[in-house]
């Protein structure tokens, strides 16, 4: 509800009424835009959440075969197998970037696939392919979860703005407009009754003359 | 009071300006993006938006020979004065790409999409589409 002091502070002029009306139209437009943005953000949030769940499931499926194959390779090639692979296999590089979802900036990673490996080690190719798939899924999960957090924060702030417009600004402007209209109506009525009174007095004077 | 009112007007106008800060400063052609090691564009707020290479390859596959002329990101327009949840894609190539990805019918140079289709489109082409809100109307 609007405090009476706030209403009393408005100058009861036609200019003020026009300004308030314009502001109300603008506020309604902003409310509509922000509400639609909120809907889009919520949809994006849900999509990212669904994706993160899917990726987590994929990681859970991939992690055990990679671990088993790694353990098998360790058994075959010995303890220094990972150092050997590290020296012989092409490196996988990633670039940290940003992605923008409806004005929400989230961190993203672009993974560059390694080049063709010439070295031949039994069992290494499959291990490499599986490990690459796992890394890709982990990065995708990270991206999705980062987006979920960023979108969540943006949804919270947008929701506050939408609610402020819906429950405070628009009702306050509407009430101020109503108040001004009532004042103008009252002025008009006063004016009418004054005119009537003056007319009566003049008529009475005329009769007396 | 008028100062408060002006502040409110400024705030409301600022909100309308900020709502489109994610729109690209300059769009790029698909082939140009495919040639870059990290395909990206600069947005109006100065931030960088990176495209998913998988999506770019998919668009190239969908459009075939005409793919090079497609400018990205594909802009989906939303006009608040129109019906709620009603979006429009303009441009012949953009319409063709979106209709092929969504497997829906296209009519001329404009494609009308509704909210469920937008959700589906954003799921398939998250980085290569962007939603533009036009508060001023068409």
Write up this protein:
The complex is a heterodimer of chains A (209) and B (138). Chain A is mainly α and 209 residues long. Chain A starts with a helix and ends with a helix. In chain A, strands 1-2 form a two-stranded antiparallel ribbon. In chain A, a hairpin with a 2-residue loop joins strand 1 and strand 2. The mean pLDDT of chain A is 84. Chain B is α+β, with helices and mostly antiparallel strands and 138 residues long. Chain B has one domain. Helices cover 40% and strands 22% of the residues of chain B. Chain B has 5 helices and 8 strands; from the N terminus they run αβαββαβββαβαβ. In chain B, the strands form 3 sheets. Chain B has a 4-stranded mixed beta sheet with strand order 7-6-5-8, covered by helices on one side. A two-stranded antiparallel sheet of chain B has the order 1-4. Chain B has a two-stranded antiparallel sheet with strand order 2-3. In chain B, a hairpin with a 5-residue loop joins strand 2 and strand 3. The mean pLDDT of chain B is 82. At the A-B interface, helix 2, strand 1 and strand 2 of A face helix 1, strand 3, helix 5 and strand 8 of B.
Q: Can you give the helix content of chain B as a percent range?
A: 25-40%
Whole-angstrom Rg of chain A:
36 Å
- What is the domain total for the residues of chain B? 1
Q: Tell me the structural class of chain A.
A: mainly alpha
- What is the terminal-to-terminal distance of chain B? 34 Å
Please tally the β strands of chain B and state the result.
8
The pLDDT mean of chain B sits at 82
Family (chain B): Belongs to the UPF0216 family.
Protein name (chain B): UPF0216 protein IMZ38_07165
